[in-house]
Design goal:
Blueprint lengths: L6 H10 L4 H8 L3 H8 L7 H11 L29 H24 L16 H11 L10 H7 L3 E5 L8 E6 L2 E7 L4 H17 L10 H18 L2 H7 L6 H11 L3 H10 L5 H13 L16 H12 L4 H7 L4 H12 L18
Parallel strand pairs: 1-3
Antiparallel strand pairs: 2-3
Helix pairs in contact: 1-5, 2-3, 2-4, 6-9, 8-9, 12-13, 15-16
């Protein structure tokens, strides 16, 4: 290989595998000091060491010889549940974001995707008003959003999944130049993923220039604003008022929630905020929903949304005899990392007929 070993890529792969330097050293049969010197660029590995590191991390050796990875501006990345996330979980999620950028760069070269179509509401502190403004800008009226993921993709958001297998990582979003990105943890219910999508949309339109520093007051305010935006965006006030009866029971909530594709708890909260349920009714409904298992799950929930962009991309590449493993090889990633970043969005493998001379796909 002509390029030099890149120590930043060694750190990136180690973070994705949630290993400490000591843990990587043990897995690769090296000393902790040797791994530390490699990650700090103080020594160059020989071929045997590179092979041991690649094997321990389950990454292709070519990954370690590519250019410096992009660095996420952590102040501009909106992480949720920061108090629940361990340092390893946060580092792994951020590293997933960096790998997502590399996949996105490759995708932009191969396909023409929708441009970002966003309104800047960084001046707006009222989530209800912000949600109305976005709906007006996109011409959505007050009808339910039938496919939140599809809407985001049409408006130019690059959406990836997170395979973190933990509820401590909800979702995160950020802007790179003029391109919005959202990473969703599909470990949650379909309804929670839809709400997370709307929550991250709020950060993209309301907090683009603000940043959210972990643990400080602005971060907590931004999270409350994003929750309020998501609630109002998915469940417009006039539509909810016109559809719910005067006396709202738990059974009414369970029947009505399918219209807005939200969780029972989210609809109960919205109804209470709109003054359609008294404090006592809301408290009683939460207790009953919890008793029926709706606090941590969503029995008989809606179907999980999938990515139209990624399904079309994979179908087009398959028609050119390109498999997912070959796509992973093109971006120097192990197949499981590519699968983690897009697999949760596309569902079962797409295998249409292969064309002898397939046309170049354009997705705009």
């Amino acid at each position: 290989m002509d390029n030099k070993f890149n120590p930043k890529r060694l750190s990136l792969a180690r973070q994705r595998r949630r290993l400490t330097g000591k843990g990587l050293a043990q897995a690769a049969g090296l000393s902790a000091m040797a791994v530390s010197r490699l990650e700090n660029g103080l020594s160059d590995p020989d071929n045997a060491t590179i092979s041991a590191l690649a094997s321990a991390l389950r990454y292709p050796a070519a990954f370690f010889f590519a250019d410096d990875p992009d660095e996420l501006d952590t102040a501009s990345v909106s992480f949720r549940s920061l108090t629940k996330m361990s340092a390893k979980e946060k580092a792994a999620a951020q590293a997933a974001g960096i790998l997502g950028l590399e996949i996105s760069d490759w995708l932009e070269k191969e396909f023409r995707l929708p441009e970002a179509d966003f309104v800047d509401l960084s001046y707006e502190a009222n989530p209800e008003a912000a949600a109305k403004a976005v709906r007006t800008y996109w011409g959505l009226g007050e009808k339910p959003i039938t496919n939140m993921l599809g809407l985001l993709e049409v408006k130019g958001v690059r959406v990836f999944s997170l395979s973190e297998a933990t509820k401590n990582v909800d979702a995160f979003s950020f802007w790179r130049d003029e391109r919005p990105f959202i990473f969703l943890n599909n470990f949650k219910t379909a309804e929670r993923s839809i709400f997370d999508s709307a929550h991250e949309l709020a950060h993209l339109v309301m907090h683009r220039h603000a940043g959210t520093q972990p643990g400080d007051q602005p971060s907590r305010i931004a999270e409350r604003e994003a929750d309020g935006f998501a609630s109002a965006f998915l469940m417009p006030a006039n539509d909810v008022r016109s559809r719910l009866p005067r006396f709202i029971t738990v059974d009414v909530i369970l029947k009505a929630k399918a219209r807005w594709r939200v969780s029972a708890m989210a609809l109960a909260y919205r109804a209470h905020r709109l003054g359609l349920m008294t404090d006592w009714q809301y408290k009683s409904a939460c207790i009953e929903l919890g008793r029926r298992g709706y606090r941590t799950d969503e029995p008989n929930g809606v179907e999980r949304e999938t990515s139209a962009v990624w399904r079309k991309v994979l179908a087009a590449l398959w028609s050119e005899r390109t498999t997912r493993d070959e796509i992973a090889a093109k971006v120097n990633l192990p197949p499981d990392e590519l699968e983690g970043l897009i697999g949760g969005l596309v569902g079962p493998a797409v295998r249409p007929e292969r064309a002898s001379n397939p046309p170049k796909l354009r997705l705009a």
